[in-house]
Fold each of these.
Amino acid sequence: MRKVFKYRLYPNTTAEKKLYFTLNRCRELYNAALSERKDSYQLHERKQLQINSETGQVVAATMTAKQRVKAVGYYGQKRALVEIKKLREEYQGIASHVLQDVILRVERTFQRFFDGAGFPRFKGPNRYDSFTYPDGAGWKLDVEEQGNSFKGTLHLTRIGDIKVRLHRKIEGKIKTVAIKREVDHWFVVFSCEVEEPAQIPLSYEDVGIDLGVTHLATLSNGEMIEHPRYYRRAKKTLEKRQQALSRKKKGSHRRERAKKLFGKAHRKIANQRRDFHHKQSRKLINRYQVIVFEDLHIGNLTRRPKPKQDEETGQYLSNGAAAKGSLNKSILDAGWGMFVGMCSSKAAGAGRTLLTVDPTFTSQVCSGCGQVRKKDLSERWHTCDCGTELDRDVNAAINILARGQQHLGGKHPTSATA
Ligand SMILES: [Zn+2]
């Protein structure tokens, strides 16, 4: 299995100059190779046109894609690199395999073209942003472990040593190394061969999960996953910036700037949420064998009135709640869907079962006796004549789990041993 690790590079001025130099030479080579093949393609294509002798019109070009490029092709161009290096000294300063990879890129765009994609295009300076070491030659990575963090140095032949910020540990065997420019930042992208994740041991615990506004998730065993701590502050920033944005005149520079700031806050909250959801979903998958969620597509209908509640305190908001509602909805809804999606893909990789059930009345039905106990949204506690006393969301989560288990029909190990 391939896994990709991307890290920020911190080249010094000399190394950065060489990075730009290499990138520009690669782009130049790419465009030249493309131009040669384009000419060859057009020349050969023209020769093969069938002309209707009576009308003089072109009937068809009959050559197959492979024949068309016979004159100039991938291997021919790869061989020509030796000549190019002789004629253009500056190319001698670039690792051979990097240049070969450029030729391969041209070949790939032609293959895609033959498969129906558009005709390959020349690349302007902003359109060509990476070069690749396709194997183990021309580079070396040194990693130094310092407590919990890693210090890395990437040695590139004829370019120099570059500091790498290894924010997470690299795994597996490095197969290819790409150097990538993003605006004025440089990155290294390692594509690594890693072993398939080992199956985690079978669990005998199942769980039902109620997703909510007060808590991110309430589990059927009474545990809760709270919204992350940073969330409240990030959301405040987001709201403030949205208000600022709405006050700016349409089409103005100030509005553009406010828009950028709002976008930035949005991205930050999205990134934080993604990290948090990854961690939480991993925990759930490690612990439970069967995980039952409510089906959000159905759930949203019953949830509609909820945004009128303050999502932190569960209290009702008086005025302006509707306007705030759409923002809250966009923050929270996206979060739930993504969270379930992450759990789902991790479950698939780990041999766990995840299913979603119709959530209708899950908060109204008593999980102890099955009777309907109507309550409005402000009632946070479930009390029933049968003696069941539960948090409203825990009651719902138990019902969700029960629906899931009913659906599985006792065919899985947990319910057989329960
Ligand atoms: Zn009851």
Note: The chain has a mean pLDDT of 82.
Amino acid sequence: MATTRRHDVKDLSLAPEGVRRISWADRQMPVLAAIRERFAAEQPLSGYRISACLHVTTETANLMRTLKAGGADVVLCASNPLSTQDDVAAALVDEFDVSVFAIKGEDNDTYYQHIEAAVDHKPQLTMDDGADVINVLHSARREQLGDIIAGMEETTTGVIRLKAMEADGALAFPVIAVNEAQTKHLFDNRYGTGQSTIDGIMRATNVLLAGKRFVVAGYGWTGRGVALRARGMGAHVIITEVDPMRALEALMDGYEVMTMEEAARVGDIFCTATGDKHVIDRRHLESMKDGAILCNTGHFNVEINIPALRALATETREARQFVDEFTLADGRRLYLLAEGRLVNISAAEGHPAIVMDMSFANQALATEYAVQHATSLENKVYPVPVAIDEEIARLKLATMGVSIDQLTAEQAKYLASWDEGT
Ligand SMILES: NC(=O)c1ccc[n+]([C@@H]2O[C@H](COP(=O)([O-])OP(=O)(O)OC[C@H]3O[C@@H](n4cnc5c(N)ncnc54)[C@H](O)[C@@H]3O)[C@@H](O)[C@H]2O)c1
């Protein structure tokens, strides 16, 4: 299909492969497909302009199709310069009539120009993975703030930034924190990131994990998933934390817990998953073993102090795709994967579709909720309503062919009473 849509993608001739892969992912996304069918009939987003800044993957393509089916006019740009799947971007423009501004490997200037292009769409609704569109609207495009009904935020790091804006009284429209839905972070952050991060490390390096000392920084939802899967592959997993409760949990889950100072000296593979800055800092890099592999699966590429790594290196070269080798003055070599960006989306394909089905069902239903409640929402960060969360869990179980028990009337009464039940 020849397109008249505004776009900046790598190559429209990649569209047929993108269409094939989008439809493969769609088979694993039955909850979103059911929402799409309802949206097509009811048109809840009819006439609304949405600017979305998400990883341009097959799963995101199915979310874009769903919003469009609901009547929305959608523009998509990338939420990370390395995560775009160019065939998917081409397919969205050429086959599904969605404006896309995203090219894998785009430089920083192009990345921000693409966000500006998405904001040029004059959105009434925003959808972010890391709050970049919301940031542009609150800085360079303040004149557009009055048009916005609400925003949706996908990830932990974005939610942290938005809650800080709310606390400062700076947030100029309501935001729904999709990440806070249980059907999002319990599955996406834990199982999705867990599996796809290991996949990214293996695709980039082809190392054997069995027997390696695998250091995970941060034992939150994401870190728990990475640790669980690394252990499953036979690695000896070490956790570093700053929160005593999480550190204790990691210990009782059977992992070794130590400081990064100590872990730096013994680790073979390091993966940061904290949402924090310089978790692996210069002093840690200075004590690492020859051949240590470093990667990050947190949102921004600031978890490893990359400027310090560059400054320490006397020589740098690309050892293989997604692997940069840094030779230090004493001859030790450290390997950084995917430029310190999200390794699961840069070097692999990100989360499997079956998980993103729930995350993006939350995005679609939260958008519908925001439109329906536009007049009553204040300039705050809201959780996804529990009724939506529970409905998604119910639908997901049904699509997996799993039934669960129901409380009997007697049990419901018992659980709501002080009765000991003897
Ligand atoms: N790669 C992906 O696809 C993907 C998916 C979901 C979330 N994320 C990102 O992963 C990051 C973590 O998300 P989460 O949901 O696990 O958050 P979380 O808040 O559940 O966990 C973060 C953990 O890191 C710990 N931490 C903070 N600073 C630390 C430090 N200096 N050293 C050691 N531990 C430290 C915190 O105490 C916390 O336990 C965020 O940036 C989030 O946006 C990435």
Note: The two ends are 70 Å apart (CA to CA).
